[in-house]
Amino acid sequence: MSKAAAPQKNKKFSYYRKLSAAQKRIYDKSDAITRVKLPAPERFHPAVMALQRGLERGDRRAVAGAASRIVSGLCTVFNVPKISVKVLSKRPSGRWGELHGLYESDEGKGITLTVWMRTAERKDIVAFKTFLRTIVHEFMHHLDFHLIKLDDSFHTVGFYKRENSLAKALMAGIE
Hints:
Blueprint: H1 21-32, H2 45-57, H3 60-78, E1 84-90, E2 93-94, E3 97-98, E4 101-106, E5 110-118, H4 128-146, H5 157-171
Parallel strand pairs: 1-5
Antiparallel strand pairs: 2-3, 4-5
Helix pairs in contact: 2-3, 4-5
């Protein structure tokens, strides 16, 4: 007779061991939260479909408008502070790779979510699902600070699971 395997806890990323005790508490709290519930995700379908159409046309203005509507709506649903969205053209890159998105909080200027709609090297339009997931990823940092009330926003397994749950909800029924 064999013993049933105990459920595995979320794997900790290698940088965990370098964190301070306070940072480990934040990481562990983040890691324990694996889902965000988006009520009535279908209300986002018009903006998500507009984002998809804008990307297909390579229309940065349309993409920026749709991305702003999605993020503004998410801020309203989750009752967190509004943030501005910038959609820029070509991703910045370096030896470290390409930057897909950026979440910045500046006390005097507010909070900005920046995404780039073209790849760095080939300047191709980013695929719709990748682009939407980037928006969701950066928005998840916002939720970490303002909904979950974390003092930092670490990339944990729980963070990626929350991101995935929100992205799937936004894309449900859209292809």
